[in-house]
Amino acid sequence: MYPAPKRFLAYSFLLSFSAVWLRAHDAVYLPAFEVAGRESSLHGEASSASQGFVGADELQLSLGEGSGGLLEAVPGMVATQHSGSGKGNQYFLRGFNLDHGTDFAVSVDGMPVNIASHGHGQGYADLNFLIPEMVSMVSYLKGPYYSMVGDFSSAGSASLQLRDLVERDFAEVGIGEYGQQRFVSGVSRELAGGDSLFGLELENNDGPWDLDENLRKRNGFFRYSKGNYDQKFSLTFMGYDSSWTATDQIPEREVESGRLSDFGFVDPTVGGRTSRYSLSANWKRDRGHVRTFATAYGIHYDMNLWSNFTYFLDDEEDGDQFEQADRRQTYGLSLGKVFYYQELWGKQVNHTVILQGRWDEIDKLGLYKTRERSRLEAVREDAASVVSTALAYEATLDWTARLRSQVGMRWDRVDGEVQAIGGLASRKAGDDIVSPKANLIFTQNDAFEWYASFGEAFHSNDVRGMVDGADPLAGSQGSELGLRYQIPGKLNASLAVWDLDLDSELLYVGDAGTNEISGASERNGVDVAVYAALSGNLSMDLDYTWSDARYRDAAAGEAFIPGVVEEKLGLGAVYRFGEDYDVSLRYRYFGGRPLDEAGSVFSESSETVSLQVAGRLSDWEWTAQLSNLFDSRDPDISYYYESRLPGEPSGGVADIHSHVMKPRRLQLTLRRLF
């Protein structure tokens, strides 16, 4: 059943009038933002060919879905969903099936998003707590070559920067097919000599599935900032709460037989609920040639997730549904200094040093056998504590006007303690790792810049696996040769040829409560990214990636790494009709994935096209977005494993289980500017 649209719209317009009331009291006229993005030059600033940033205007035109879709601004990144809109996205990059973020580090204004020893998966990165309209920029670093990034960064990292204010207050209502309803607003005010920004997002969505998703998502945002270029302070609160019913991947044998539609389901009671509340502070000060900066944060997080991937394989009577629970508080502090324009061996050098600490106090990590969301027994239930500390140093030295180097070293330590609730005495484990980094940059002329990069990184493993004897930290080593070509204001193009080796892919399997050793691996590939402003009205972008990923010491014929995307192509075009109208078109392709170690089973490839038309008239803005323009039924994600439905053999049936992408759908938004 769709949520009552009249009530939703009534609440939306009530909130809109609240924004008008705020606008009428102590109104402040704010300056326009300086627009920056992929057209900006990185010559003399970038340390590799695999880094860049995407500005707010480009993010609005990227046509990614939801907060997780923001990461698709990273060239080569694929973000999919297989278990409801409230769950963290599944990510693919550089020959990795990153699950929900194990080897890709994400932060928001210096506050880490990846969750260590998470109840569902190590490094879980759920961006649903973000209101996309509050994000001003996405900066990305692909590869392990950067000293300021630590845990979960073997494939790369992304940093999302938040707005201090909006240029004009706004209230927006969006409606779409399949019960989609969304309200979002942003209001800026002068406060105590600084700026404040209030944001609110309400979303209801049933989705196209035979079983209504019944998503209820609520996001609140407040930010206070004060200062100028020399010194600045900001304090940010974010609150998020959501609940949903999931339609997981389904067996293809049921779709082919006609017993299930492409949008069908097996277990009607899977889904989840999540809440996240955070308070973070950022401060920086520039004095002379020294910048001092600090970040502090506190996060409360609570999640319950119900899943059933094998149906009646393990338990023919009660079924295989299970619940994963995670409740924790996370605290962190980061302190750093940058010393600009120093001298070493008669050359100019910049020094950066940073000290980081993080403490996860986990009240409950639970894995339960359930039926229709009712707990039947606890498979495992723990309390835990994880403490991470790091010290990093980096030096950027200008050898000549054209040649510079960036060399760094990072030390990380992770310590964990696990106490089984009502069970064994606590157990402890810990380890540290040193990660060297190096980049060499040669600026040939105003058009060409060349890069050679090397680095080591790691991901930590789940603390429950650590105390059971698993290696606490799994290291990686990567290298890259790259080229960047630019015509300022018109063209930015980059090419990178890279390789990456992982010493071990020891992971805690949250679905089963056990450790799994997947062995050492090696990956190599090519990344191409192009942004071109073809005229004053037309711009286009392209990103293409190819990668090859294999287990290094696997038995003959068992070297494929299941689930990795070997090839991805993204194309986009934006045409502006004067200042008031624009049209954007995006195409995304990602190739078939091996689904077993032998490479005997592959998923289908996936293609989708999306179109958006936007217009402005005085104080009103509108958009019409048509997603999946050609109504593709390609899978968003696929797995190969054994499952059992009633009446099937006790040993189950090995089959591909897929989650189809959403069908063609229209979404309309109307925004009022104040």
From TrEMBL:
Location relative to the cell: Cell outer membrane
Residue intervals of the TonB-dependent receptor plug domain: 54-156
GO molecular function: siderophore uptake transmembrane transporter activity
Broad class of where this protein is predominantly found: membrane
Protein name (database record): TonB-dependent receptor
Gene3D superfamilies the UniProt entry points to: TonB-dependent receptor, beta-barrel domain, TonB-dependent receptor, plug domain
One GO CC term on file: cell outer membrane
Transport is among the record's keywords: yes
Membrane topology: Multi-pass membrane protein
Example GO BP: siderophore transmembrane transport
Taxonomic placement: Bacteria, Pseudomonadati, Verrucomicrobiota, Opitutia, Puniceicoccales
Homology family: Belongs to the TonB-dependent receptor family.
Superkingdom assignment: Bacteria
Keyword terms, alphabetized: Cell outer membrane, Membrane, Receptor, Signal, Transmembrane, Transmembrane beta strand, Transport
Record carries keyword Ribosomal protein: no
Signal peptide location: 1-24
